[in-house]
UniProtKB/TrEMBL annotation:
Gene3D superfamilies the UniProt entry points to: Nucleoside Triphosphate Pyrophosphohydrolase
Keyword Hydrolase: yes
CDD domains to which the protein is assigned, alphabetical: NUDIX_ADPRase_Nudt5_UGPPase_Nudt14
Recorded GO MF terms: hydrolase activity
Cellular-component GO terms for this entry: cytosol
Source organism of this protein record: Streptomyces pacificus
Protein name according to UniProt: NUDIX hydrolase
């Protein structure tokens, strides 16, 4: 049962996103006006150290008025390589430079409304380069034991879907 997009037009646009309206044909022949949000790709990065701790940020999100643990993340700039963007975001937000980054997974956090793709990377280890350039992004940065991750997610301490998915896969890869 596939939906078919017949047309799409931009309703609003800025440097961060576009809001579009699509004319969609449903399998039964009816038409549906469907709003969608077109977004830039997001690059996410973290590191896991020899003690199986993962580098995370504790931050407040004003939109949902919630606090939680997240991984360093940000939009990929025009012409920027996704892996380079992930490394840049980790350095800017944590003050740690990752080792060689490996692709962990790509997720679509809300594919019924947006075309957002979040590309998650990780490295074995990182080097402290100084205080974070974007220290305003979080209240603190900590190395959290991976073994605590499933319980943290269950308690709601990791509200971001991209972070939860990446942490659970890292937990599986590193601890089984």
């Amino acid at each position: 049962m596939q939906w078919t997009k017949l047309s799409e037009q931009t309703i609003y646009e800025n440097r961060w996103f576009r809001v579009n309206l699509a004319d969609v044909a449903l399998p039964d022949g009816r038409h549906l006006d469907h709003f969608l949000i077109r977004l830039r790709p997001v690059a996410v990065a973290t590191a896991v150290n020899e003690a199986n701790e993962v580098l995370m940020l504790w931050r407040h999100r004003f939109i949902t008025d919630s606090w939680g643990w997240e991984l360093a993340a940000g939009v990929v700039e025009d012409g920027e390589d996704i892996v380079s963007a992930a490394a840049r975001e980790m350095e800017e937000e944590t003050g740690w430079r990752p080792g060689p980054l490996r692709h962990l997974l790509t997720v679509e956090p809300s594919n019924g409304l947006t075309d957002a793709r979040h590309h998650l990377y990780w490295s074995e280890g990182a080097t402290r380069i100084g205080p974070p350039e974007d220290g305003f992004e979080s209240s603190r940065r900590e190395w959290i034991p991976l073994k605590l991750v499933p319980d943290m997610i269950a308690r709601g301490e990791v509200p971001a879907a991209n972070t939860a998915a990446g942490l659970l896969l890292l937990h599986h890869l590193r601890l089984g």
